[in-house]
């Protein structure tokens, strides 16, 4: 077995431990170094992952696999982690817990990466929990902020419940097929399809993953948690952790349970429609930008869920590409909120609701780069051409029509048009409404993270070929495993 | 490379213009860019073979081979006149605004250039993906144009315009997807090439699918055009936009272009072509009459011009549905002529508003005494708009009406009724605002400045020139119309 297969994970673990150890001995004012160190480690891991695209291998008694699917999602997670750690240099400034903030994020990312590689449900579950527990702690990072604590507790309680449901589902699968290996379950699927326990397992698993992906009606925690957590943590939750739920669901449903397709396909169709509609409708009336982004994130998860319904290589490729695009767009949008919150708090330490949309007034003049980036992100989320969001929607929605689900595509497209309203509202506040605020010097780390995210959004928009190619390769892995 | 330069020069200069600091720099850069586009377009025009309906100056590079997307440009006799119209009016528009005291001039001129690049891109694109990208790109600068420099209801108007036409574009996108996948599943290779997909339409499985694809595409185009009953974004957007924005809206001929370039070649292969002709003809005829009545009822001069625009756009769909080469080429010429005429009319509204502070016609009066130069140009534009022989409007409308009469008598009769009303509201507007006794409370009104005179005067001269000698643009339109009509005849429509 070649350990180099896991060079990205190993790099991340080493980085995480190094940050933790070095952080112990650094005075508060020089803890900035940790941010650079973490970013460097993530960059190296990202390099290893990109370099290993195209490898196909199994490792550790076939419990982990390295293939186009796992590597593609690792890229998604690492990109989000990179944006997170660059921006966090500013956020953690002056905090004595800097190293904990980074270590938790790095370990969460490692958990997500192992979920992407998992070829066995036990590994998948353990990795899932590694990521979840790290993020529970992260969302309560602001210990003196009641909102943050509430967010954390809510997330923790609901997260634990969903983990329990998931575990129940897994035990049923194990009970019927006698194995926890994903291909093994797929091989024993005939027994599952014949027994009512199969259906029960499907229901439990949908609920378990539904919580993580925040599908309506399992979404109740998401708006509160995204709003209450520090913005950067919300970016990690929406852009990273949610994708982990999606890749895990891909593996469990499409690879392991393809034989029960008829049962779960219709469930996902209903969930997709409800989720995107509720998400967009609720986002319309929000005044907290973070909450609006949380609901928009629901809607986007609804679009991605369409891939479970259509199940063609192109649709899955579209869903996978969407995951990457959403990573850039949503992480970027939350980092913008973080920058705005920073601006508001630096003017008035006791400001209430620093992410209120009124604080976005005149941002185009006050923080030009931040505002321009936000414009790119929201237009991308709305699906305006030459952005990553458009490219992903193009592939995903068009494949839906190709597969004969025109009604689903029509609902998705109407939703997409509806979403433009609240995205345009943010642009309106930033550029058209007057403000008394003065121009603010934009913190470099935030700006740098935003520039990287904008570059990603535009790169996928202008030159989608390599991204589409690898997303399709990843989709082929899913379908090959299930057939 | 020629077409790429025409499309990309404005987009590149838009970025440069955005980086300028002063008004003088911004307008100079914008002028340089637009004049460069004009010269390239004139060169293209003289190299163009107007006796051929084939695509010319084609450029092609693969872009996303997995999905069959390519960067593919090319023009024919449908697109070149519209490119010419855009290339002529934009530099004049920049001259017209030369002395305007607008805030953020760098953004203002940059938005004009982006709009120009996007519109030219739509006219040149031969790939549906590229076409859609440019199509949507026109939205963003116009949205900002209205909401940054617009009138009192600018926010409402800009959001309404954006969402209304964006929804229509999405419906159109559904149609494109339908066409794309139908062809893909038939031939096994993905391609978004427009001529290829148009030629594959006839092999699409069921008649119902073909009709749905046709209607989805048609919806996208007629909302943009617009025609009744999908016009309600138009009066708000046209009226609230600043003068330059209104002129950019007028030059946004992409809806009509889509009808000629995409709808007509598909029409004979739909399951029920006669139904489609009825839809287009009826919407066109009703728009002509309905727009004229609404224009008659307006107090605000700019709103009147906006509704008159709706009325004139009705001729485009009516002529396209007429299906004889005279009516189709007349409808194409209407787009060209309307672009010239409406540019002057909106410029005139802007000048009057700036000079007197109002556009309500009853509060105006006798302006011709204080603004003689404006009066001459304006009267000429109004006459052209109401269809006076010898000017471009007459040629377009006469061809449409007489050509369409062959197949669509009933609709032509409806549209004919509008002619009287059209005459009435134009003359009445002139009478109320320009002639009669000068209202002293308007203050000391000064005439248009040299730049404005030059810009408006040159367009006025073109209206006369093309009115007397339309063949420089009409010939190529006729070539293409004959080709399109031949296609229909081949299918027995």
Question: Could you characterize what this model shows?
Answer:
The complex is a heterodimer of chains A (483) and B (493). Helix content of chain A is 78%, strand content 1%. Chain A contains 20 helices and two strands. Chain A has a two-stranded antiparallel ribbon. The two termini of chain A are 27 Å apart. With 493 residues, chain B is mainly alpha-helical. Chain B has helices spanning 2-18, 23-47, 79-96, 105-124, 128-137, 139-149, 154-187, 194-200, 207-224, 233-240, 243-251, 254-266, 273-297, 301-322, 325-356, 367-370, 372-386, 392-404, 409-433, 450-468, 471-490; strands at residues 56-64, 69-75. The radius of gyration of chain B is 22 Å and the shape is globular. The mean pLDDT of chain B is 90. Classes of the chains: A mainly alpha (483), B mainly alpha (493). Chain A binds chain B through residues 379, 384-386, 394-395, 397-398, 401-402, 406, 409-410, 413-414, 416-417, 420-421, 424, 428, 431-432, 464-465, 468-469, 472, and chain B through 63-67, 129, 132-133, 136-137, 139-140, 143-144, 147-148, 155, 159, 162-163, 166-167, 170-171, 173-174, 177-178, 180-181, 184-185.
Written as H for each helix and E for each strand, in order along the chain, the element string of chain A is HHEEHHHHHHHHHHHHHHHHHH
Structural class of the secondary structure composition of chain B?
mainly alpha
Helix content of chain A: over 70%
Which bin fits the share of residues in helices of chain B? over 70%
Order of helices and strands of chain B: HHEEHHHHHHHHHHHHHHHHHHH
Separation, N- and C-terminal Cα atoms of chain B: 39 Å
Shape of chain B: globular
- Gross morphology of chain A: globular
Query: What order do the strands of the largest sheet of chain A run in, or round the barrel if closed?
Result: 1-2
Q: Tell me, rounded to a whole number, the average pLDDT of chain B.
A: 90
Note the total helix count of chain B: 21
Beta-strand residue percentage of chain B: under 5%
Per DSSP E runs of 2 or more residues, the count of β-strands of chain A stands at 2
Unreliable segments of 5+ consecutive residues of chain B = none
Alpha carbon gyration radius of chain A: 21 Å
């Amino acid at each position: 077995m070649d350990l180099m297969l896991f060079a990205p994970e190993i790099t991340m673990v080493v980085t995480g431990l190094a940050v933790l150890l070095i952080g112990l001995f650094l005075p508060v004012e020089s803890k900035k170094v940790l941010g650079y160190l973490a970013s460097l480690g993530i960059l190296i891991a990202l390099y290893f992952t990109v370099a290993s695209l195209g490898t196909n291998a199994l490792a550790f008694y076939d419990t982990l696999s390295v293939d186009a699917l796992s590597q593609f999602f690792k890229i998604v997670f690492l990109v989000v982690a990179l944006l997170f750690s660059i921006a966090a240099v500013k956020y953690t400034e002056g905090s004595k817990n800097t190293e904990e903030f980074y270590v938790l994020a790095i370990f969460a990312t490692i958990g997500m990466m192992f979920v992407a590689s998992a070829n066995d449900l036990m590994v998948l579950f353990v990795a899932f929990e590694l990521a979840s527990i790290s993020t529970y702690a992260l969302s309560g990072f602001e210990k003196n902020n009641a909102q943050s604590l509430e967010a954390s507790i809510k997330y923790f309680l609901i997260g634990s419940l969903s983990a329990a449901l998931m575990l129940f589902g897994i035990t049923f699968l194990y009970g019927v097929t006698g194995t926890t290996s994903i291909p093994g379950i797929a091989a024993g699927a005939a027994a599952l399809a014949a027994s009512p326990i199969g259906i029960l397992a499907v229901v439990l698993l949908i609920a378990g993953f539904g919580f993580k992906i925040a599908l309506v009606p399992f979404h109740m925690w998401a708006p509160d948690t995204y709003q209450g957590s520090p913005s950067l943590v919300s970016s990690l939750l929406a852009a990273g952790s949610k994708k982990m739920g999606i890749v895990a669901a891909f593996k469990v449903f499409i690879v392991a349970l393809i034989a029960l397709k008829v049962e779960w396909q219709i469930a996902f169709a209903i969930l997709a429609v409800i989720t995107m509609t509720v998400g967009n409708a609720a986002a319309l009336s929000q005044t907290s930008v973070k909450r609006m982004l949380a609901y928009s994130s629901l809607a986007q998860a609804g679009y991605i869920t369409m891939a479970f319904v259509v199940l063609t290589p192109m649709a899955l490729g579209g869903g996978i590409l969407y995951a990457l695009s959403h990573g850039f767009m949503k992480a970027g949008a939350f980092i913008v909120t973080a920058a705005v919150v920073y601006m508001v708090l630096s003017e008035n330490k006791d400001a209430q609701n620093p992410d209120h949309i009124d604080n976005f007034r005149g941002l185009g003049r006050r923080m030009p780069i931040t505002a321009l980036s936000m414009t790119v992100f929201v237009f991308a989320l709305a699906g305006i051409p030459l952005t990553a969001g458009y490219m992903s929607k193009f592939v995903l929605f068009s494949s839906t029509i190709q597969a004969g689900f025109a009604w689903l595509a029509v609902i998705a497209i109407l939703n997409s048009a509806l979403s433009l309203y609240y995205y345009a509202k943010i642009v309106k506040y930033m550029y058209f409404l007057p403000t008394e605020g003065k121009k603010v010097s934009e913190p470099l780390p935030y700006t740098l993270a935003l520039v990287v995210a904008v570059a990603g959004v535009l790169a996928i928009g202008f030159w989608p070929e390599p991204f589409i190619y690898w997303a399709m390769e990843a989709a082929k892995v899913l379908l090959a495993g299930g057939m | 490379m020629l077409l790429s330069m025409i499309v990309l020069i404005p987009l590149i200069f838009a970025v440069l213009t955005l980086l300028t600091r002063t008004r003088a720099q911004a307008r100079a850069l914008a002028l340089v860019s637009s004049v460069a586009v004009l010269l390239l377009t004139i060169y293209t025009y003289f190299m163009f073979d107007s006796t051929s309906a084939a695509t010319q100056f084609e450029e092609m590079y693969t872009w996303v081979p997995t999905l069959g997307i390519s960067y593919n440009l090319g023009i024919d006799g449908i697109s070149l006149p519209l490119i010419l119209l855009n290339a002529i009016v934009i530099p004049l528009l920049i001259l017209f605004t030369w002395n305007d005291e607008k805030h953020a001039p760098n953004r203002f001129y940059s938005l004009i250039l982006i709009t120009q690049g996007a519109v030219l891109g739509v006219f040149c694109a031969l790939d549906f993906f590229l076409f859609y990208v440019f199509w949507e790109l026109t939205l963003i600068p116009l949205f900002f144009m209205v909401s940054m420099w617009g009138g009192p209801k600018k926010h409402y108007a800009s959001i309404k315009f954006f969402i209304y036409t964006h929804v229509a574009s999405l419906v159109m996108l559904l149609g494109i997807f339908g066409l794309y996948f139908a062809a893909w599943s038939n031939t096994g290779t993905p391609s978004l090439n427009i001529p290829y997909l148009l030629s594959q339409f006839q092999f699409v499985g069921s008649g119902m699918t073909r009709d749905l694809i046709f209607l989805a595409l048609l919806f996208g185009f007629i909302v943009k055009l617009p025609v009744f009953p999908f016009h309600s974004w138009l009066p708000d957007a046209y009226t609230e936009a600043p003068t330059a924005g209104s002129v950019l809206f007028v030059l946004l001929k992409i809806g009509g272009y889509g009808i000629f370039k995409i709808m007509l070649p598909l029409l004979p292969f739909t399951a029920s072509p006669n139904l489609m002709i009825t839809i287009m003809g009826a919407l066109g005829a009703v728009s002509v009459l309905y727009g004229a009545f609404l224009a008659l009822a307006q107090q605000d001069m700019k709103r009147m011009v906006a509704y008159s625009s709706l009325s004139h756009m009705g001729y485009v769909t009516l002529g396209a549905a007429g299906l004889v080469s005279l009516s189709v080429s007349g409808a194409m010429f209407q787009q060209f002529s309307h672009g010239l005429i409406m540019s002057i009319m909106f410029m005139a509204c802007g000048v009057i508003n700036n000079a007197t502070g109002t556009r309500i016609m009853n509060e105006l009066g006798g302006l011709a005494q204080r603004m003689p130069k404006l009066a001459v140009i304006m009267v000429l534009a109004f006459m052209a708009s109401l269809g006076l022989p010898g000017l471009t409007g007459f040629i377009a409308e006469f061809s449409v009406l007489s050509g369409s009469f062959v197949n669509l008598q009933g609709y032509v009769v409806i549209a004919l009724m509008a002619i009287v009303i059209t005459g009435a509201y134009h003359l009445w507007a002139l009478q109320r605002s320009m002639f009669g006794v000068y209202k002293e409370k308007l203050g000391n009104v000064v005439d248009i400045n040299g730049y404005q005179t030059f810009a408006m005067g040159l367009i006025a001269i073109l209206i006369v020139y093309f009115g007397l000698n339309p063949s420089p643009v009409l010939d190529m339109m006729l070539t293409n119309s004959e080709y399109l009509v031949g296609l229909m005849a081949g299918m027995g429509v």
